[in-house]
Structure formats: structure tokens, C-alpha cells
Amino acid sequence: MNTPHPNVHGSHAVHLSWVIAGLMVFQSAGGLLFPQLYRDVEWIRAAWFGNDLVTLLVGSPILIVGLALSRRGSVRGELVWYSALGYAIYNYGFYLFGARLNVFFPLYVLLFVLPVIALILALVRLDVGRVAGAFGPGTPVRWVGGYMLLTGGGLAVAWTMQWAFFIFAGIEPAVGEEAFALIAAMDLSFVVPFFLIGGVLLWRRRRWGFVLGPILVLKGATYTLVLTAGSTVAALRGIEGSAAQIPVWATWTLVGLVAFGLLLGGVESRRPET
């Protein structure tokens, strides 16, 4: 019998996550239906349009599916749920700190803060051994761990070098000083350290590596899909240089999805004992 695990069934994190899913649908649909509410320059408006599209069609459904599956005791569903919360934190951090003040501002605050609270409530009650025990011995942890280390290290080098060029050589980043400061700060705070730590833990088959790995890899793939969509929208609107970014982000999305598939493919169908 598939009895729901106490970490997910009836917990505050679950109820809060359903609220978050509803708010994500409402905000992203509102942004798509009323794009004039955004007050940013054209290339950023194009990015918001692509972002809202992916959030509505991919990000929100992932959260809903993860919640539904985790209620049935699925380890895969539980990890997808956590990953969707991670996506919401990172995604709405950009809106909250990067968008010009608009009617959605209170939603940005809620959609940044509430997923943090929900993820904390879920993870503090998580039986890490139960999750790690669901992964079979053949799970390609070194392949995925290597991908995570490459991604985290690559981002750290790329942003640090652009910062150094600006400070010591006066070369302004291609996206501009203000946009660079936001993007680099978000990546160096929310992506790089967790990808590096998670990659090492997964490589060494530590228990937390099996938790952080799937969460971060799916979250990363979902957001590079956002960048792919945003670049596509910008290219269709005639914004110079946008088309060249599409293959880069599309490739990294595919790589991330493959890595996520490799990890979850290692989860055994039987439910692990606590």
C-alpha cells in the first residue's frame, strides 16, 4: 500500500506550496495577458515575456505534478516538488530585485519569500536516508556530479572575470553594469555555491548529494529554458544579438534535462524503507 510519507502528507509545506502554485499561475498569466504592465526597456520586457511563458507552461505544472506525486509517497515527486520551489525562489528573485516597480510587486515579494519558507519547512523534516536509499548503486553520480561542478565552476569564472575586466580594465559587461550586477549576484549567491557543494557530495555518494543533485539540476534546466524562451522572444522582436544566445541556452537546457533523467532513472521503483 502506498501510504503518504509524513514529511509531505498534511504538512504546512504542502499547503503553502499549493498557494505558491496558484500565485505563480496568476502572476505569469497576468504578465502574458497584460504585458504593458511591465515598465522596463524592450529587451527586458522580452525576457519577462519568455519568463512568464515558461513559468505558466512548465514551472507551475512541475510544482503541481511534484506535489501530487509526493502525496503518493513518490521520491521522484518529492524531489521535483523541492526543485520547483527552488525555481520559484531564483526566478522571482530576478523580478523582485530587477524589474521596475509595477503592479505585480507584492506578488514578487510573496513568490520570493513563501518558497523559501516552504522549502525550509520541507527539508527540516526530510528523511535524507530514505531519499538517498531510493537510488540504486548504478546511478551515474559521477557524470551528473561532474556536470554540476562544471556548471558551478564555469559560472564562477565567467562572472568573476567580467567583474575583473570592468574594475581593472574598464571593460563594461555586454549586458551593462546594472544588469550584470543583478545576474552575477544571483548566480554567485544562489547557483554557484550550491552546484559546487551538491556536485562534490553527489560525486562522493553522500546522502545530501542525492537530495541536492536532482533539485539543482532540474531547477537549472528549467531556468535555462527560461533564457532560451526569452532569447527567442527578443530575437523575434528584432533585438540585436539575441538569436546567437538561443543555441547556447537550448543546449544547456538539454544537457540539464539529460542529467536530471540520469539521476531519477536511478531511483528504484520500490519504496525504500525508512
Please summarize what this structure is.
The protein is mostly helical. The chain is built from 10 helices and no strands.
Give an account of the 3D structure.
The protein has ten helices and no strands. The chain starts with 11 loop residues before the first helix and ends in a 10-residue tail after the last helix. It has helices at residues 12-33, 42-71, 75-98, 105-123, 128-132, 141-169, 177-190, 192-203, 207-236, 246-264. It has one domain (12-264). Helix 3 packs across helix 9 (207-236) and helix 6 (141-169) packs antiparallel against helix 8. With 274 residues, the protein is an all-alpha fold.
Architecture blueprint of SSEs:
Layout: H1 12-33, H2 42-71, H3 75-98, H4 105-123, H5 128-132, H6 141-169, H7 177-190, H8 192-203, H9 207-236, H10 246-264
Helix pairs in contact: 1-2, 1-4, 2-3, 2-9, 3-4, 3-7, 3-9, 6-7, 6-8, 6-10, 8-9, 9-10
